[in-house]
Amino acid sequence: MELEPGHEPQPPRLRASDADRERTVEQLRRHHADGRIDMEEFSERMDRAYTAKTVAELDELMTDLPRDAPLAAPRPAGSLDERRARLRQSFYRSLASYLSVNALLVGIWLFSGRGYFWPIWVMLGWGVAIVAQAVRALGPGAGLDDQDEHRRGQRSP
C-alpha cells in the first residue's frame, strides 16, 4: 500500500496481505473518527477492505480521502526536571492523604476507648506504599524511566 508511511509502494496487481487490509481499515477508522466518512460508508469500505484481493482494490477505497501524514514520533514525557516535579507533587499529595486519614483513624481510636491500637495496620500497609513512592519521587533515580535507566547503565563502567 502506498498510503502507509514507511512501506514500499506495491504494484497494483499484487495480491493484498492481511497486514495491508488491516492498515487500510485502520486508516479508514481514523478518517471516520475525523468525520470524513459516516458510519455507513465506513462499514461498507471496511467490508470491501477485508474482501479485497489486490492492493489496487485497497487503494481504490482511499482515493477520495486525504493521505495520512506520517505518524508523529511519540512526544517525550517532558524534561527530566518536569517529570521529577510531577513525581514530587504526586508524592506530596499522597503523603498529605496518608497523614490526614491516619490522623482521623487515631482520633477515632482515641474517642472509642483507647483499646487495641488498630490504626497501626492501616499505617503499616499504606506506609509501605508511601515509602516506595517516596523512593521513586525523591531518590537518586527520580524521574528516570526504564529507557533512561538503561542508557545510564550503559554509560557507567
Describe this structure in words.
By secondary structure, this protein is mainly alpha-helical. The chain has two domains: 1-73, no CATH class; 80-155. It has six helices and no strands. It has helices at residues 18-33, 39-51, 55-62, 80-111, 119-138, 146-155. α1 packs antiparallel against α2, α1 packs parallel to α3 and α4 (80-111) runs antiparallel to α5. The longest helix has 32 residues, at 80-111. The model is unreliable at 69-75 (pLDDT under 50).
Summarize this entry quickly.
By secondary structure, the chain is an all-alpha fold. The chain contains six helices and no strands.
Percentage of residues in strands: under 5%
**What is the approximate shape?**
elongated
N-to-C SSE string, H for helix and E for strand? HHHHHH
Structural class: mainly alpha
What value does the Rg take, in angstroms?
A: 28 Å
Can you tell me the number of structural domains? 2
Q: Please provide the count of β strands.
A: 0
Which oligomerization state do the chains in this entry correspond to? Answer: single chain
Largest sheet: none
Residue stretches low in confidence (pLDDT < 50, at least 5 long) are 69-75
Give me the number of helical elements: 6
State the end-to-end CA separation. Answer: 46 Å
SSE arrangement:
Elements: H1 18-33, H2 39-51, H3 55-62, H4 80-111, H5 119-138, H6 146-155
Helix pairs in contact: 1-2, 1-3, 4-5
